[in-house]
Amino acid sequence: MARLLESWNDMVGRSRVLRLLDIHLRGAGQVMLQNNPLTGLLFILGIVWGAVAAGNLAVTVGAIVGLVVATATAILLHSDEVSLGQGLFGFNGILVGVAVPTFLVMGPATWFLLVVGAAVSTVAMLAISHVTKTWGVPALTFPFVLTTWFLVLAAYSFGHLPIRGMGPPALPAPVGAAAAGLELSAGFLLNAWIKGVSQVFLINNLITGAIFIVALLVSSVWAAAFAVAGSIVSVVVALLLGASAAEIDAGLYSFSPVLTSIALGCVFFKPSWRVALFALLGTVFTVIAQGALDAAVAPAGVPTFTAAFVFVTWLFLLPKVNLEPHRHEPLKDGILTEK
Questions:
Q1: In angstroms, rounded to a whole number, what is the distance separating the alpha carbons of residues 204 and 212?
Q2: How far is Cα 54 from Cα 56, in angstroms, rounded to an integer?
């Protein structure tokens, strides 16, 4: 695999077209914090599978459009070349491109909204990174979260942006025992664990989740291991706390913990038993944060997206705990890149 990537990098260095393709593929991979073009390609294939299975091909088109628009915006703004080359301006855009067709009915106005949102996600990335660099932490997926909150909230005010998969606004209510209760089975647990990974891209599909795990394995055994472990832990914690069985089954209590587990377990710190325990604590708390944020945004009738991952990961990175870090350095625009 290393030799394959080396050959690919050599070709990229000789072709501007391949360099652009490489930037976009790495942008897709960076959704799960992986700077690997093959991982990005497999993520896109997983999106295609999930979109076809759900009968919503607009998700695939939206993902590509969002990725391209966000990256093109970064190029036009003359953003940092190293960050651009690692795909750090594409991952928020591809998430915007997946989210809009998932929660809104696509039409001319909605596609316009998606394109604007993807471009703004790059501006938001620059703005948020400029602020977070003073804390020494990355923006993560908060540009996607913030931008897409505005996009989907706007649907309640504009008649040409019909809603398909969110809301209605409601006051939070306790989950009853009947809603939380279920009979555990190996099939239920396996389904929830794998869909927890697929839901990182807002896709509710078992095969897509398996493709994503393989994509992580291509890039890093540690990343794949922490993703699977994060999903398993999140399901156990959600069951222990009595979350809705339907939401657990759909992976809705796992996608942010999966990202937290990867980030704390092997991206910002070198894997060790101490780091694993630290990541475990962060993963457990992300499940709690997910439930809290679900209740907090219910009156607005919008999803939380990956806000739980962002807030908890910031919380766990800010103390600068005495754990051996992976080598990252903040560039002038505040975006953390590999050294």
A1: 12
A2: 5
The structure tokens listed for 290 are 């997910």
Domains of the chain: 12-338 (1.10.3430.10)
DSSP-assigned states of every residue in 202-218: T---HHHHHHHHHHHHH
Distance of CA 58 to the CA centre of its chain: 19
Instruction: Name residue 269's beta-bridge partners.
Output: 325
Position 284, amino acid: V
Tens digit of pLDDT for each residue in 323-333? 777 665 444 45
Question: What is the torsional sign of CA 86, 89, 90, 92?
Answer: positive
3-state secondary structure of 309: helix
Contacts of 238 (CB under 8 A, 6+ apart): 247, 248, 253, 254, 287
pLDDT digits (tens, 9 = 90+) for 189-209: 999 999 999 999 999 999 999
**Where are any strands of DSSP class E within the chain?**
328-330, 336-338
Tell me if residue 89 falls in helix, strand or coil.
Answer: coil
**DSSP assignment string, 107-172:** SHHHHHHHHHHHHHHHHHHHHHHHHHTTTT---TTHHHHHHHHHHHHHTTT-TTS-BSSS------
